[in-house]
Design goal:
mainly alpha
C-alpha cells in the first residue's frame, strides 16, 4: 500500500509565500496592498488584522489541501499546481466568493478585468505551491539520501 504524508512545513511555506506572491501581483496591478485582507476585515466587521490572518490562513489551507491531493493528480508537477489553482479560482472565487460579495459570477459586475486579474493572481500563488510541494521537497529528499550514503 502506497501512502502519502503531507510535509506540513513545506505546505505552510507554500501557503504563505503563495499568498505573498498573490498580494504582490495585486499590488502591481491595483496599487493596493492587502486589498483582499481589507475586504475580509471589512465584511466580517473584525478589522484589518483579522483580514490578514484570514487571508493568509486561507492560503495555507489551500496549500495543505493541494499537498494532500497532488500525488493523485496527473501531468507534470508544475502543471498540477496551476490546474489546481485554476480550478480553485473558478469554483471558489468566480462562482462562490464574487457572487457572495455582490460582484456577480466571475466578478463581471465589478468589471471585465476582474476575472483576468483574479486568475493571474492565483496563478502567481501556484508558483510557490509547485516549488515547495514538489521541487524543494524533492531536492531536500535527495540531499538527505546523499547524506545517508556518506
Amino acid at each position: 500500500m502506497n501512502t502519502h504524508k503531507i510535509n506540513w512545513k513545506n505546505a505552510i511555506l507554500a501557503g504563505i509565500t503563495g499568498t505573498l506572491a498573490f498580494d504582490l501581483i495585486g499590488l502591481l496591478f491595483t496599487g493596493t496592498w492587502w486589498d483582499i485582507a481589507g475586504i475580509i476585515g471589512e465584511k466580517t466587521g473584525l478589522g484589518m488584522a483579522y483580514g490578514v490572518i484570514g487571508h493568509y490562513s486561507n492560503g495555507i489551507l489551500l496549500a495543505v489541501l493541494y499537498a494532500g491531493i497532488a500525488p493523485s493528480l496527473i501531468g507534470p508537477k508544475w502543471l498540477r499546481a496551476q490546474i489546481f489553482v485554476i480550478a480553485e479560482t473558478i469554483a471558489l472565487v468566480w462562482f462562490f466568493m464574487f457572487p457572495l460579495l455582490g460582484a456577480g459570477v466571475a466578478g463581471l459586475k465589478a468589471g471585465a478585468l476582474l476575472p483576468v486579474l483574479s486568475m493571474v493572481r492565483h496563478l502567481a500563488y501556484g508558483i510557490p505551491l509547485w516549488y515547495f510541494i514538489h521541487k524543494y521537497q524533492q531536492s531536500t529528499l535527495r540531499n538527505k539520501a546523499s547524506l545517508r550514503e556518506i
